């Protein structure tokens, strides 16, 4: 797990302890980079008390959901879907970043949902805006993917 992920874990831990949603309990500064990932981490962190394995397991589940979306999108062609699943399974970058404790797996899942809407016969602008906004809130550089598609 990435050491930067512990910043988010500590902010969630402080929130669950009744302090501020920040790295230090007496500050009003957001020290983590991804508010949607931090919010998504609250319930699993409340259920499981382990600060190390909880974000990694949540990452793995969310990454599997993102991979399922990719295979689902390519599902009309079984060979292409199988190729996509195999490439993801053997991609060191996908596997490493899917268990880093950071927001990468959430980006994969939101990109999948965004792509499903983009490739619909008649995409709805409100849904595209929702997924693009959540992508931007999760990781600011993902606006480079969402904005051109909307424009």
Provide the fold topology.
Elements: H1 5-16, H2 35-47, H3 53-73, H4 78-89, H5 92-98, H6 104-118, H7 125-138, H8 143-150
Helix pairs in contact: 1-2, 3-4, 3-6, 6-7, 7-8
In short:
With about 150 residues, this protein is an all-alpha fold. The protein contains 8 helices and no strands.
- Series of secondary-structure elements, N-terminal to C-terminal: HHHHHHHH
**Helix proportion range:** 55-70%
Shape: globular
Largest sheet: none
Strand content: under 5%
Q: Can you characterise this structure?
A:
- There is one protein chain.
- By secondary structure, this protein is mostly helical.
- It has one domain (5-150).
- The chain has helices spanning 5-16, 35-47, 53-73, 78-89, 92-98, 104-118, 125-138, 143-150.
- The chain starts with a helix and ends with a helix.
Keyphrases for this structure?
0% strand; 151 residues; 8 helices; mainly alpha
């Amino acid at each position: 797990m990435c050491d930067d992920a512990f910043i988010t874990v500590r902010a969630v831990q402080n929130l669950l302890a009744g302090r501020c949603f920040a790295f230090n309990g007496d500050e009003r500064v957001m020290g983590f980079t991804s508010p949607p990932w931090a919010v998504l981490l609250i319930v699993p962190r409340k259920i499981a008390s382990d600060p190390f394995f909880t974000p990694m397991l949540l990452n793995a589940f969310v990454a599997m959901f993102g991979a399922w979306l990719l295979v689902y999108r390519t599902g009309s062609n079984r060979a292409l879907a199988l190729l996509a699943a195999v490439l993801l399974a053997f991609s060191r970058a996908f596997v490493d970043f899917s268990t880093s404790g950071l927001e990468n797996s959430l980006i994969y899942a939101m990109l999948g949902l965004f792509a499903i809407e983009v490739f619909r016969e008649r995409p709805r602008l409100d849904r595209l805006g929702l997924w693009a906004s959540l992508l931007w809130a999760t990781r600011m550089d993902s606006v480079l993917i969402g904005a051109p598609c909307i424009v």
